[in-house]
Design goal:
By secondary structure, this protein is an alpha/beta fold. The protein is built from 17 helices and eleven strands. The chain is about 45% helix and about 15% strand. The protein has a seven-stranded mixed β-sheet with strand order 7-6-5-8-9-11-10, with helices on both faces. Strands 2-3-1-4 form a four-stranded antiparallel β-sheet, covered by helices on one side.
Length: about 400
């Protein structure tokens, strides 16, 4: 709520915000709608842009809470409730800024977790099942965007050198406490992609938890790593920066093309080979497709766009990926997700243990937003009982 209280709401242009909010409530992804609106309204001042983005994202995220507060579904009324009930704006000013004729108000506080923190019913039930009493603090942690974390590209610089370069460009940072190459951006709304440091490939945006998961692979210089589900290559780039020869594979060719471009900018092209089929390697990383419940703070409408059926359907795909990876890992196999779902995490790893005595689990690892301050990740690490040549 503190974040919403710091928004320059007096700069809000309701005539732009309310139609955009209506589109989001009808199913258009919030980030896509924000991009569209900002492109169509390039003359907005900085405060107007900030208020517009926070209005769209705020109603998108808090829609259930706002409907509980007002008993209404009108975009203008929900926006007025956001300002009045969550951002601390007076009722008269909230109505004037949004053009809402009225916004009913409840006197009591919401009793249900889903109403307090604006969750779908299925997600409320799932979080209570997975986290118990910690569900409340988890929900508080995902109610605001996560910090901006960068990974220094050690092929080109140390993180101290990156911090110094960004400082020279007016952006302040602080070193992460866990990820050795991580820095947190402290300058609000920093234009990172306008910096020379970005153009020169000195860093990649990457959550601290994601960096830590990639570090579990622990490649020795010159070893090969198969990144079986490479996607756009965040962890492939991390592993290449550690001196590994990376074999990047994914079924999504478009995302692999993004990896090609990113690897050129990072000066890592010579270390990353995009392969059309999985190959044997010293180490294999399975950064599996998952239900993504650990990254809910990264998108204001992510909780409303996830299909709950995925929680039951994905373990079959994940197990197939692990079975593909098992014979290809000469030394180590790392399985990771960014979700909180025992069926995709602990239960799947335990079943894999029973089926593969040739692999010994050496670590089970997790992070949570309300504990470590990172996105929520899970990983299991297996070493081959008798390492082989790749």
């Amino acid at each position: 709520m503190d974040r919403l209280r710091q928004v320059p709401w007096d700069a809000l242009r309701a005539g732009v915000a309310v139609p955009a909010i209506a589109s989001v409530l009808e199913g258009v992804p919030a980030e896509r709608e924000v991009d569209r609106v900002l492109r169509r309204n390039r003359g907005l001042s900085r405060d107007e842009r900030t208020a517009l983005v926070e209005a769209i994202f705020g109603v998108s995220l808090w829609r259930r809470r706002l409907r509980w507060e007002t008993g209404a579904s009108s975009p203008a009324v929900l926006l007025a409730s956001l300002l009045r009930d969550l951002a601390g704006v007076s009722e008269a000013r909230a109505l004037a800024l949004t053009g809402a004729a009225q916004a009913p108000r409840r006197d009591a506080a919401p009793e249900r977790l889903a109403d307090r923190w604006s969750l779908p019913d299925w997600l409320e039930a799932h979080l209570i099942s997975e986290l118990g009493e910690d569900a409340e603090t988890f929900c508080a942690a995902i109610a605001a965007p996560g910090p901006v974390c960068l990974r220094a590209n050690r092929l080109l610089c140390t993180r101290d050198q990156l911090a110094a370069r960004l400082h020279d460009e007016g952006i302040e940072t602080a070193p992460s406490q866990r990820a050795p190459d991580g820095v947190f951006v402290r300058t609000p709304r920093a234009n990172l992609f306008g910096t020379r440091a970005w153009r020169e490939g000195l860093f990649e945006p990457q959550d601290e938890g994601s960096q830590l998961l990639g570090n579990l692979v622990e490649p020795l210089p010159g070893e090969t790593v198969l990144d079986l589900c490479a996607g756009a290559g965040g962890k492939s780039l991390l592993l290449a920066a550690q001196g590994a020869r990376v074999l990047a594979h994914d079924v999504d060719g478009e995302r692999l093309e993004r990896l090609r471009a990113r690897s050129r900018r990072a000066r890592a092209s010579q270390l990353i080979e995009i392969v059309d089929r999985p190959r044997r390697a010293d180490r294999v990383l399975v950064d599996a497709p998952c239900s993504e419940l650990g990254t809910l703070r990264r998108g204001p409408d992510a909780r409303w766009r996830i299909d709950p059926g995925l929680l039951a359907a994905l373990p079959l795909l994940q197990r197939e990926l692990l079975e593909t990876a098992a014979p290809l890992a000469a030394k180590r196999l790392v399985y990771g997700t960014c979700t909180l779902n025992r069926a995709e995490n602990e239960e799947l790893a335990a079943a894999f243990d029973r089926a593969h005595p040739e692999l010994r689990r050496v670590a089970t690892w997790r992070t949570l937003p309300h504990v470590e301050g990172t996105d929520g990740f899970f990983a299991s690490v297996w070493d081959r009982v008798r390492p082989e040549a790749p």
